[in-house]
Write a structure and sequence with these properties.
Blueprint (H helix, E strand, L loop, with lengths): L9 H11 L2 H21 L10 H13 L8 H10 L6 H5 L4 H12 L6 H8 L10 H12 L9 H10 L1 H18 L6 H10 L4
Bound molecules: 2'-deoxyguanosine-5'-diphosphate and fe (iii) ion (2 copies).
One fe (iii) ion (FE) binds next to α6.
């Protein structure tokens, strides 16, 4: 028997997702799923868990796979779905609508992909900005999104990758610091959750 990676119908999720994403984004999603699983193996204390980490591994895989499921929508389709699902879109998100794919991705994961696990949905919801004091799963999805192997090799990448497998919280700090630097260079404002995350993870500098 095959080891079950995901408590949902994995082939069905992947088939659906592949139709909604371009090839690069699909490859990125697979990369995030497996990177997130590796981070669970490193940081999940799975030898102490009754199920040997099976639940966390399945959550990480599912959240990684689906985190960007709303990324490749056209603007009109995106706005229509936000309306249908009555999502609260902040003024900031209206100004920088590419941020919406995180919130909408969580809604689509629930309504279209049948994910009923709030821990998975929250990890998808916060994968772009992070927030203060993230759960292990949230922190791992936030991190895996940044370091998965098909990501463009930024200068900071080897440092972030090494850090995240040594000390997850410090690694998250490294990513947030890089994100703030990047936003400053582009003269873009920092979203409130990103700032809140940075303020929190500063203690792991
Ligand atoms: O969807 P991905 O490309 O895989 O990655 P993502 O969901 O982390 O999105 C990355 C983008 O989000 C990147 O261009 C930086 C942007 N971002 C993250 N935090 C903030 C932000 N943009 C603004 N304006 N403010 C933020 O606080
Ligand atoms: Fe994303
Ligand atoms: Fe992503």
């Amino acid at each position: 028997m095959m080891e079950v990676l995901c408590s949902y119908d994995e082939e069905e999720l992947k088939k659906k997702l592949k139709r909604k994403l371009d090839d690069k984004r699909y490859a990125h999603s697979i990369g995030v799923a497996y990177t997130a699983v590796s981070l669970v193996m490193r940081h999940g204390n799975i030898d102490k868990l009754e199920d040997g980490g099976a639940k966390l591994i399945s959550q990480a895989y599912t959240a990684g796979l689906l985190h960007d499921c709303a990324k490749c929508l056209e603007d009109g389709e995106r706005d229509k779905l936000c309306k249908n699902y009555k999502l609260d879109i902040s003024d900031f998100e209206r100004e920088y609508p590419y941020l919406i794919h995180a919130k909408l991705g969580a809604a689509l994961s629930q309504k279209k992909y049948g994910v009923d696990d709030d821990e998975i949905l929250s990890a998808i919801r916060y994968h772009t900005t992070g927030h203060s004091d993230m759960t292990l799963l949230e922190g791992i999805i936030f991190s895996a999104d940044f370091i998965e192997p098909t990501r463009k090799p930024l200068m900071i990448m080897p440092i972030a990758r090494q850090a995240l497998f040594e000390d997850l919280n410090h690694g998250i700090y490294v990513i947030l610091e890089q994100t703030l630097k990047h936003l400053k260079n582009k003269e873009q404002p920092v979203e409130e959750h990103t700032l809140e995350a940075y303020e929190w993870y500063k203690r792991y500098k």
